[in-house]
Amino acid sequence: METRRIDPVNCSVARALSVVGERWSLLIVREALDGAHRFGEFHTRLGIAKNLLANRLDTLVTAGVLRRVPYREPGDRQRFAYELTEQGHALRPTLIALLEWGDTYLADPQGPSVVVRHQPADDTNPCDAPVRVVLECAAGHGHLAPQDVRRAPGPGARFVEAPSPT
């Protein structure tokens, strides 16, 4: 007996991973979120090979995660800095979720090397509490357990016929 299932090729997770699924790509985004803008800053902070860094920056620019902004130091040729776009900034919760997972399952025995804290940009209401990612549904139910969340077909779902488990 055949059953329909969502086509795994038509998947936003797969599309996202084609942009940021390579290790260095998310690390570049992490450094950009922490203030790196120039090629040399990324190279120094990450210790990545220059050709690989150039390739990953090109991928992130092409995908719209970063944008190139020209600049010129006095007496030097034009170069490019890299700024996060809205898409790039929107990756922060993803990086925090990965950090939380890594801290829970992979941290050094002494504990995590970094703690993400709430520090409002305008500093009018200082907080400094640790930040965490929380699953919440559109109805406002928060702190959902992973087992209480499931995938369902969306408006762009495509289906394939799949053999039924026997």
Question: Can you give me a brief rundown of this structure?
Answer:
This protein is an alpha+beta fold and 166 residues long.
Question: What's the helix and strand layout?
Answer:
Blueprint: E1 2-6, H1 12-20, H2 23-33, H3 39-46, H4 50-62, E2 66-72, E3 78-84, H5 86-89, H6 92-105, E4 159-163
Antiparallel strand pairs: 1-4, 2-3
Order of helices and strands: EHHHHEEHHE
In total, the number of strands is 4
**Apparent shape:** globular
- In whole angstroms, the N-to-C terminal distance is 9 Å
Sheet with the most strands?
2 strands, antiparallel
| pLDDT averaged residue by residue | 92
> Over all CA atoms, what is the radius of gyration?
20 Å
Tally of helical segments: 6
Oligomeric description of these chains: single chain
- Output the structural class: alpha+beta
In helices, the fraction of residues equals 25-40%
Strand order of the largest sheet: 1-4
How would you explain this protein's 3D organization?
- The protein has a two-stranded antiparallel ribbon. The chain has a two-stranded antiparallel sheet with strand order 2-3.
- The chain is of the alpha+beta class and 166 residues long.
- Strand 2 and strand 3 form a beta hairpin.
- The model has no long low-confidence stretch (mean pLDDT 92).
- The protein contains six helices and four strands, in the order βααααββααβ.
